[in-house]
């Protein structure tokens, strides 16, 4: 119901909207004030079974070029006690018995998507991991291998290739029980398999300590000034021949920066946030110690402050 001016009644009257015909009718004299009007509201319709669900979906999912049917196959839903229970359950059983070459891929892609969401990864990394798994699966040589470790390794390689690396420990935390050793073996297998397929080594990208710095600092709740100092220190540390892994260097730099600030972080907290053992952080700190005056920014700490740090 609404108000509009009726030319016959010569006044504003209540009008009725006939949605099926698109007419606007005067409630007093019956004059059609407007016909075939366009309904600009959303045309949501539900195709869910009669379960009372408010499902506004009118289209299927996006196409997936990695699947044989483009991801546009039909899946028969489970019955919900309606009159078509017998028919739908029978069709569902026949569909499950039928061969679907993409069933394994669909499950694998769902697992990769779940792991990506838990790590907060962008869609490009997830898509790259799907492509890597599809290439490995096409070789038909991955049977008998740990599927969870294989998918986690695909995600690890995708992160490296997209210049958004994650540590093996981070990947392991969402790998459904796969161990670091299993993921490492799966990664070597994938690199070897894809290398044989293309005839050239797989490009993994170079890991730098700075790639992990912002995330590690965020995990520790460090302020912006400390984060900026840590990033500058890590960049300067690359000028020296420090034979430690980038992750270990990042953890050691964070330890140094926090010790120079008012908000000192215990070594145990840094170890938990970075996934680096306390002993490894100490050894990396020992290697960085002779270069502190050249690594730590002058605006963050004076030379006197550096001398007050505990010697390794």
TrEMBL record:
Pfam families to which the protein is assigned, alphabetical: TFIIB (PF00382), Zn_Ribbon_TF (PF08271)
InterPro entries: Cyclin-like_dom, Cyclin-like_sf, TFIIB, TFIIB_CS, TFIIB_cyclin, Znf_TFIIB
Keyword Transcription regulation: yes
Key word Ion transport present: no
Alphabetical list of SUPFAM superfamilies matching this protein: Cyclin-like, Zinc beta-ribbon
Keywords of this entry: Metal-binding, Repeat, Transcription, Transcription regulation, Zinc, Zinc-finger
Lineage: superkingdom: Eukaryota
PROSITE patterns: TFIIB, ZF_TFIIB
TFIIB-type domain segment(s): 2-34
Similarity comment text for this entry: Belongs to the TFIIB family.
Protein name, per record: TFIIB-type domain-containing protein
Protein species of origin: Hibiscus sabdariffa
């Amino acid at each position: 119901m609404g108000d509009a001016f009726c030319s016959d009644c010569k006044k504003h009257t209540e009008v009725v909207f006939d949605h099926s015909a698109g007419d606007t009718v005067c409630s007093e004299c019956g004059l059609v004030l407007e016909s075939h009007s366009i309904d600009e509201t959303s045309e949501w319709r539900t195709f869910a079974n009669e379960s009372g669900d408010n499902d506004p979906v009118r289209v299927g999912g996006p196409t997936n070029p990695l699947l044989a049917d483009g991801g546009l196959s039909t899946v028969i839903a489970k019955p919900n006690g309606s009159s078509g229970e017998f028919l739908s359950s029978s069709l569902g059983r026949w569909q499950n018995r039928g061969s679907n070459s993409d069933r394994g891929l669909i499950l694998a892609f769902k697992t990769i998507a779940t792991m990506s969401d838990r790590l907060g990864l962008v869609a490009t990394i997830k898509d790259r991991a799907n492509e890597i798994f599809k290439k490995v699966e096409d070789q038909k040589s991955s049977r008998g291998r740990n599927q969870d470790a294989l998918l986690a390794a695909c995600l690890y390689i995708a992160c490296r290739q997209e210049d958004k690396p994650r540590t093996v420990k981070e990947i392991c935390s969402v790998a459904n029980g796969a161990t670091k050793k299993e993921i490492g073996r799966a990664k070597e297998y994938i690199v070897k398999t894809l290398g044989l397929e293309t005839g050239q080594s797989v490009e993994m990208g170079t890991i730098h300590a700075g790639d992990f710095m912002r995330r590690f600092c965020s995990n520790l709740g460090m302020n912006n000034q400390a984060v900026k100092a840590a990033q500058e220190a890590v960049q300067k540390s690359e000028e020296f021949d420090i034979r430690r892994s980038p992750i270990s260097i990042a953890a050691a730099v964070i330890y140094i920066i926090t010790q120079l600030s008012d908000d000192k972080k215990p070594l145990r907290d840094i170890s938990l946030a970075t996934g680096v053992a306390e002993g490894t952080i100490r050894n990396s700190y020992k290697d960085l110690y002779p270069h502190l005056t050249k690594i730590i920014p002058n605006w963050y700490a004076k030379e006197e402050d550096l001398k007050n740090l505990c010697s390794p």
